[in-house]
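Blinded run. Sample ID left blank on purpose so nobody reads anything into the name before looking at the predicted structure. Input follows.
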Amino acid sequence: MYLVFDVWCSSLKMEFEKLAQEKTEMQRHYVMVSTSCQYLTFLLTGSSVAEWLACWTQAQKGLG
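Blinded prediction complete.
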């Protein structure tokens, strides 16, 4: 009985670790896409790269 429980717990632990890794990858992807969209929006509205960088830097400070 203990062996079955131990295997089940190990399986759940592996599944949780896999889900945590996928969550981290999805968050990283979201940040990349979001940043790219913001950058393109700034370029399409005629703003300079320096203005975008200043805005992005300020946003990062807000996240910290």
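Unblinding after everyone has recorded impressions. The mean pLDDT is 86.
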